[in-house]
Amino acid sequence: MNISTGFGSAIIALTVLTACSSSDDNEPVSDTIPQADVITDPAPLFDAPGEYGCENCPDSDAENFSIATSDTALNFSSSVLGAVGDGEFYILGDDGSAISGVIPTSSTGSFDFTTPVFCGVQIIKCVWSNEAGSYVLITEITRDDCTNAEIQLTLNWDDIGADYELHLIKQGGRINDNDTDCTWTSCIGAGPDWGLAGDTSDNPLKDVDDTGSFGPENIFLNNPENETYTVMVEHWGSGGAESAGNLIFNVAGETTLAEVTNLPSHFVWNVGTIEWPSATVVLDGRIIDCTADWSGGCTLDLPGNPPN
After folding, report:
1. CA dihedral sign, ordered 38, 40, 45, 50
2. Which end of the chain is more exposed for a tag (fewer CB within 10 A), N or C?
3. What is the rounded distance in angstroms from the CA atom of residue 284 to the CA atom of residue 231?
4. Is 250 helix (H, G, I), strand (E, B) or coil?
5. Per its UniProt entry, which superkingdom is the organism in (predicted)?
6. pLDDT in tens, 224-273
7. Cα distance from N-terminal residue to C-terminal residue, the chain
């Protein structure tokens, strides 16, 4: 396993040798979005670092199943042979926080994905399958010189969608306003100055941004102010109207999953709110049409004045 570091992230090359395995235009168009509150572990029988398979399952030359990093995100890239379809990953933090997502895997077996990581000790499970069973690769990750973010938001979507965009909006703020909305235009590398003026420790950051399919995207915030934050998602690109995705809230050590289906291009998913300091997550689920109010992003006054 080779590791090289870049700005805020590390790149890990995994070599997997074999993988045989187991009305009105401005009205919300939906307010009954499916939502859940748990993330499924794709390999619940295995928790110790190492690799697991079966007869005709994949093999790997991986010998080191631990990573030490100070970065907030890791990139994994290599290839897996014999798997059918995409893989999936699952990360479980030492405080119970969890995230998951798709590992896009080509027909030749190559894969490349980036995931945020929690502070402290955690495990990542990477799983690929075919008609014979599944191959499970578990790595322990230790991220030091850090504190767990009180708020972490991780966005995933399918291969029908194109460039979902994640937004964390301050109370009284507006989507795509760079002073009050943490998103791709305001929050990569350095975030807007929230909280105590001049104190960067209480500013939000977007450390993972994806402009294609699957994601993930990730925003985290330490030392949030005592107020209510709104989480919204734009379907920014020109993906299909049947696209689906999910948003994982990790707030004060508690994980909540919200899901969306049928999110057309240039529509906005009003995912929900986070009230601090109670750490209360309230899911909304409305989908709002921004197609007539779009210029480099939705220009409607959201969330402050949503269409009726």
Report:
1. negative
2. C
3. 10
4. strand
5. Bacteria
6. 999 999 999 999 999 999 999 999 999 999 999 999 999 999 999 999 99
7. 54
Pairing of strands 73-79, 9-15: parallel
Q: With contact defined as beta carbons under 8 Å apart, do 261 and 285 qualify?
A: no
The 3 state secondary structure assigned to 43-86 is: CCCCCCCEEECCCCCCCECCCCCEEEECCCEEEEEEECCCCCCC
Joined tokens for residue 97 = 């926080």
Contacts of 116 (CB under 8 A, 6+ apart): 72, 73, 99, 152, 154, 207, 208, 216, 218, 220
State the Cα torsion 278-283-286-292 to the nearest 10°.
50
**What's the order of all strands across the beta sheet hosting 73-79?**
2-6, 9-15, 73-79, 110-116
pLDDT digits (tens, 9 = 90+) for 63-114: 789 999 999 999 998 888 889 999 999 999 999 999 999 999 988 888 899 9
Domains and CATH numbers, the chain: 1-19+29-147 (2.60.40.10), 149-308 (2.60.60)
Q: In which element (H, E) is residue 92 found?
A: strand 87-93
Structure tokens at 12: 């890990």
